[in-house]
Structures are given as C-alpha cells and as structure tokens.
Amino acid sequence: MQRDSMTYDVVIVGAGPSGLAASIRLMQLAQEHQRELSVCVLEKGSEVGAHILSGAVMEPRALNELIPGWKAQGAPLHTPVQHDQFLFLTSQSSYRLPTPPQMHNDGNYVVSLGNFCRWLAQQAEALGVEIYPGFAAAEVLYDEAGTVTGVATGDMGVGRDGQPTTNYQPGMELHARYTLFAEGCRGSLTKTLFQRFGLREGADPQAYGIGIKELWEIEPEKHQPGLVVHTIGWPLDRHTYGGSFLYHLENRQVAVGFVIGLDYQNPYLSPFEEFQRFKTHPAIRPAFEGGRRIAYGARTLSEGGLQSIPKLTFPGGLLIGDTAGFLNVSKIKGIHTAMKSGMVAAESVFDALGAAEPVLEVNAYPGQLKQSWLWDELSQVRNIRPSFRWGLFGGILYSALDTYLLRGRAPWTLHHHEDHKALKPARAYTPIEYPKPDGKISFDKLSSVFISNTNHEENQPCHLTLRDPDVPVTVNLAEYAGPEQRYCPAGVYEFVEEGGPSRLQINAQNCVHCKTCDIKDPAQNIDWIVPEGGGGPNYPNM
Amino acid sequence: MKILVTVKRVADYNVKVYPKADGSDVEIANVKMSMNPFDEIAVEEAVRLKESGNATEIIAASIGVSQCQEVLRTALAMGADRAILVETGAAPEPLAVAKLLKALVEREQPDLVILGKQAIDGDCNQTGQMLAALLGWGQGAFASKLTLGEQETEVTREIDGGLETLILKLPAVVTADLRLNEPRYVKLPNIIKAKKKLLTTLSPGDLDTVLAAQLTTLKVAEPPKREAGIKVADAAELVAKLRNDVKVI
Ligand SMILES: Cc1cc2nc3c(=O)[nH]c(=O)nc-3n(C[C@H](O)[C@H](O)[C@H](O)COP(=O)(O)OP(=O)(O)OC[C@H]3O[C@@H](n4cnc5c(N)ncnc54)[C@H](O)[C@@H]3O)c2cc1C
Ligand code: SF4
C-alpha cells in the first residue's frame, strides 16, 4: 500500500531535552532571520514525557542560554538544590565522604525531567513546532544516493502474525532536508545508522549504565526539599560500578534510584534486586517508612563520554543528545549537555538550510561543538568512568588524582570495552540470594511494572526481536544462566519449562523501553525495535 | 442527519491512579489524559454512520476545563466536523453535564446524540439516561449495535443475560458499550487537518444554564488490600472455617 507523505525542513526523532531544545533553537533562528521554517518532532510515547525518565538534578546552563526568561515563563524548576551529601555504605554503616567537586550542585535544581519536557514542548509549539506524540519513527528513509531523506512512522494495526488487521493503518513518510536523531540512550534507528555509515569507526565502544527509579511520597517531617544524596558501596561489590541517588523534590516527593554500569560481570546480578536491597539499608530505610511509592521505571544511560562519541553527521542527518552520548558521567548529568548539543546542531543546520550551495552533510556541527563549553566539560572528566575498571577504590583514587592534581588534563585517555563482553559465564559464580521484598520498602518486579503504567497493544508483532531464536536457550541459559531474566527491570524475559525443555517467553507488553537487553545480551542477539506508537510506559512526574 | 457525540477527558486507562495524600480526590497532576474509551467508541460510530452516508454532520462536544480541547481535537481527527467546548471548572457532575448537553441539543438540533455508556473516572453511568429524560427522548443505553433509518434507529442493547433490540423514534439518545465497534487509529495527516477545524468555546452562561453542586465528596481512598488466602486440607475443614471463623454458613 502507498504511504502518505509530508515534507518539512527539519524532522526530529524524539521529544527529549535534546530534540526539543533543537526544535526551539531552530524556530528562534527562523524568527530572528524572518525566514519560514517547518519543523516536526516525532515521539513514540503516548504524550511528551511519557517515556522520559531521569534523576534529576538539572544544571540550568543550557536552559539559561536557550530561554533566558524561563522563570517568568513558568518552567517547572521549583526546587533549588540545598544540600549535597555523598555517602559510602557498608552493609550496616554509612560514612560521609567529601563531595567531589563535580557533584557540587550549587545553582542546580531538582526536577522531573518528564515535566520539564512537557513544558519545553509547550514553548516549542508556541513557536510553531509541530509535535506528534504517539508516532514512533520506525524506519530511516534514503534516496538512491544513500542520503537520509527522513523517516517513516510504523504501521498501526498489524497483527501478532505480521498480517494487517481490520484496523490496519500504514505508516507515514516524513521527508526532510535534515533529520535530527534525538532518540536518547541506545536509539533504535541510530543503531542502524551506526551500521550503515560506519559512524562508530575510530570511537571507543559506548559504555552504558542501567538506572532504575522510583518516585515516593514521604512523611512531611522527613522531607527536605532540595536535599541531594548520592551513595556508593553496598550493596554492590567492588568490581561493579554503580551507586544510588536520592533527590527531594517538591510536594513531599523523593526520587530514588540506582545506577549500575552494564559492564558488570556476574550474570547472577539483578540490578532490580540490588536497588530493592539498597533501600533497606539502615541509613536509607527510615526516610521511606510511612511513605508510599507512586511510580516506577527504568532507562539506560550512555556513560562512555568523549572517547565513545561517534561520528555525528552523515548525508542528510545528525545525531544529538544521549543517542550520541553527551552525558557527563562523573556528574551523572546529561540534560544540559543533551540540550546544548541540540542547540549547536540547530545552529549548524539553520546555516546549512540558508546556504547558497546545497549542503549534504552538516560538517560544521562537530566543529561548532568543539568550540562550545560542552566539549571542555566532557574532556575534563573523560578518564573518570573508565578508571573504575580498577574496582571501586582504584576508581575513586584515580578520580581524585585526576580531578584534584591533573584537573582533567592528563596526557592520556583511558578506553572502554563493550559491555556485553564483560559478562562472565555462570559457572564462575554462585547465584546471589536476594532478600524477599517486604511490600513496604522493597517490592517485586510485577507490582513495580504495574505502576510504570506501561502497556502495548497485545495483537502486534513482538518488538523484541531475536536474530537467532535458539540462542536464548543454547547460549544465554546454558552459559550465563539466563541473565535476561535478571537484567530486564520489567520481567519481560522468562524461561519457562511447562513440562518440556526450557524456552524463552517474552512478555513484550511489559517492556518499559529501557534498552538494557539490546545492550547487555551476551550474544547481541536481541534487537529492540519500536512497537506500535503510543505503546510503552506512561510515566507521570519522572 | 446531524449527530452530536460527547467526549470526556479522563486519566488514560493505562494509568494507575492513586488518591491524593489528603484524600480529597485522585492525583492527576502530570498524568497522561485521554478521551474516555467509551466516548471513542461513540465518536467512531458517528464517523462510520457518516462514512456510510447515513449522517451528514458530526458535532463533538465536551464539558470541562480548557484542556478538554485536546480530546475534542482527537475527535476531529477521527472524523468529527466541528467541536464545541463548554468550559466549566473541574469535573462537573452528571446532572450538570446532562443539563448543559440539553441546552446544546436545543441549540444544535441534532437527530441523534451518542454518548459513551460511562466515563472510566467516575463510572457514574448516568449522563446519557439523564439527558434522555430531560429531553423527553427515547434512549438506548449500552448499545452494541446501531442501525440508522430515516425516522428511527434500531439499537441492540447488552442486558443481563442477553441482548435486547429496540426501535427508537428519532431524535434519540444512545450510549455506546464496548462491543459497538473498535475505534480506528488516528492518522497523522488527519491530526494536522483537525487543527484547522472549527472549535467553539462556550460558557454555561451562554447556554443559560446555572450549575449547582448536588454532591459532596467525603473521601477518596484506595480499596483495602486483599489479605493473603489460606489453604484448607479438605472439605470438612472448609465447612468448619466458613461456619466458625467467617460465619457465613
Ligand atoms: C536514572 C537516570 C538518572 C539521571 N539523572 C540525571 C540527572 O540527575 N541530571 C541530568 O542532567 N541527567 C540525568 N540523567 C541523564 C539524562 O536523563 C539524559 O542525559 C537525557 O535525558 C538525554 O536526553 P535526550 O534528549 O538525548 O534523550 P531522552 O531523554 O532519552 O529522550 C529521547 C526521547 O526520544 C523518544 N524516542 C526514542 N526513539 C524514538 C523513535 N524511534 N521514534 C520516536 N521517538 C523516539 C523517547 O521516547 C524519548 O522521549 C539521568 C538518566 C537516567 C537514566
Ligand atoms: S525488554 Fe529490554 S528494553 Fe524492555 S524493559 Fe526489558 S530490558 Fe528494557
């Protein structure tokens, strides 16, 4: 069936901070130069913010540049950071550590990134940007010369068997002179672009972390708006990179989460259970007693930093935000850098659109980025994350040295390895016994996924595709004791026996789009592709 | 033939809502809001009637806060021709909605009004019936099938233990049940076209209607958690438990 098509100057895939900031900057430039410009943003979530999950302590630097009057325009940055605490946990005790300088948060705000994106989307629409939530970009479009000419949205109403149902609605082609990919960490279309244009050649592999988060409403006496706590140490062993965050927002809300580097080695490790266990620590538990958990979700983050940034341009398109990997991992902050990369890309694209000679590939963008504060910031901290390969103490020691003595100007650069290769066969380990959830402070996976409000139309092809259907049993289960049962924070993967031999059951409707399986599967056998638009979590206030 | 369909903005059916800490209401701040699913079925039915040549104009109406414009735009994207928002404060009560709809009906003179059988937030299941009574029109609630003639409409209703088929003289009020149809996916170009369709905003005053609250919410609370069950060894123990502990036999 023939697909409908529409044409824009710029199409942006993803309404996160990078995509929205880019759209706003483009429209601002068009207004300044009194030029007509059409910009369209596609978002796979049912609304802007539905798939956004972050901490978040936000550094307002990029926002100050983009919308200097944000306060008067009602941006939801309500809670300035008041206190920073950095704790080292052992199983029973906690020790205050000096807060590393990157973790100082003077002038920053505790926010819900989802709500901030909802606000940014309103600003963008007021400037004339067209935003379409509920439509996932499923396919990159190319012309004969191999130039990216836009994207197509997925077909709707395709049955589980791949055949059209009575409600079938073909996808739609969105053509653009430039397409900006702003899919966030581990973008599914970006992954195909890496392949097609060899964008990762010469860059380190991307390093990732999985972040699992809950939102709580706690007792008023325990609530301290603007309190920011980070912990390292227990319950993780010293070979696993990770830690927790605990941010007090407004309205008695606390965001609590746990981030674990996906280069962890022990296949029995369950990021979800580590997080649940963390909350039961004597220094942490009291804050949550008497409170109630109101939301749950998970998302990966790109932790590789500068050395993992791929080539950012190709004919007809650019990469911005976390899909390229601009997060500053020593601060665990990627909002301001995602926005900045989008703004710089917008400026380069706007120049290219107005150029006398047609510009196929916007080569000016990486050059402009290198001139910006974003590059300086990432280059200073580039060695911190990889130094944690020497274990927790090695990493802390190196980071202190790098930060205080070398001030980020070390004449060397440490490198990353592929996360999925870090996983070791199960025979080297004994299963980890995690405590049973108490249903008050710690919970099981199913009751957690329930409050991510995730859902997918059941009658559709599975969006977690396997390259080889036998690998889950012959490799993952046999060698690694089925790690997907543990690393998936939504209980999507289950090995079931039902009297016969084991087989993998994929409960795709539970997926929260974190992308961990696409990253960590030891055989790289899983490709996460977009499900029908609008499917996935419905996060409020995350 | 003119059809009026009503649409309400409610918390999306995927969202697990929870009561506010003070128990005054459910928390809907920053929650995904959507068109009430039964209203989607009502709109779909109206659009199909138009596509099959049985109707000429579809007016979508919503009553509530200004953000209800979003669900009206969705109705327009599905195929309604124009939309009316009667802007009120937060959630008006079923009787108030029915009175405002009656005033709208008098203004627009539709031949058929299709509503969802109930909204999934309050689950009142009252508005359609009240509207029919206020207008003195025939009503076909819980419709699972609808055929439109010149002077009358045939409605199959889902009732306890079976189906009931009615013939209603037009004009009439019908409320949509789950099995009436399966709403379509909205197409992107139609969303864009819907932005240009006419959406009129009225106040209750414009309709000469005064809203008076009839109900007071005392408390909103979560349902009590289910206690874990127990296992009994045999029928005798079960009977003993039912008799002595639960005291139901
Ligand atoms: C647990 C956790 C805690 C964090 N804490 C902080 C913090 O405290 N401070 C901070 O500054 N940063 C923090 N970050 C990082 C920050 O959230 C990210 O760097 C930032 O969100 C990246 O923005 P982005 O626009 O690149 O991508 P995202 O925010 O991921 O947005 C991408 C958007 O694109 C959509 N999308 C993706 N693919 C498609 C497609 N094919 N079609 C249509 N739509 C698509 C997604 O649904 C999503 O809405 C944290 C991240 C995590 C996971
Ligand atoms: S299936 Fe994959 S993307 Fe979905 S929640 Fe599980 S790990 Fe995340």
How would you describe this protein?
The complex is a heterodimer of chains A (542) and B (249). Chain A is of the alpha+beta class and 542 residues long. Among the domains of chain A are: 5-68 and 115-205 and 306-380, FAD/NAD(P)-binding domain, CATH 3.50.50.60; 385-417, no CATH class. Helix content of chain A is 26%, strand content 24%. Chain A has 16 helices and 24 strands. Chain A has helices at 17-32, 61-66, 113-126, 188-197, 271-278, 285-288, 335-354, 364-370, 373-380, 384-387, 391-406, 419-422, 445-450, 471-480, 484-487, 516-520; strands spanning 4-13, 39-43, 57-58, 79-80, 83-89, 94-97, 109-110, 130-133, 137-142, 148-153, 156-158, 164-169, 172-181, 208-217, 227-233, 242-248, 253-261, 292-302, 313-314, 317-319, 464-466, 493-496, 503-506, 526-528. In chain A, the strands form 6 sheets. In chain A, strands 1, 2, 8, 9, 10, 13, 19 and 20 form an 8-stranded mixed sheet that branches. A 7-stranded mixed sheet of chain A has the order 6-5-15-16-17-14-18. In chain A, helix 7 crosses helix 8. With 249 residues, chain B is of the alpha/beta class. Chain B has a single domain (2-224), classed as Rossmann fold. Helix content of chain B is 27%, strand content 27%. Chain B contains 6 helices and 11 strands. In chain B, strands 9-8-7-10-6-1-4-5-11 form a 9-stranded mixed sheet, sandwiched between helices. A two-stranded antiparallel ribbon of chain B has the order 2-3. In chain B, strand 7 and strand 8 (152-159) form a beta hairpin. In chain B, helix 2 (69-78) crosses helix 5. Chain B starts with a strand and ends in a 5-residue tail after the last helix. Classes of the chains: A alpha+beta (542), B alpha/beta (249). At the A-B interface, helix 3 and strand 12 of A face helix 5 of B. Iron/sulfur cluster is lined by residues 464, 488-490, 492, 511-517, 528 of chain A.
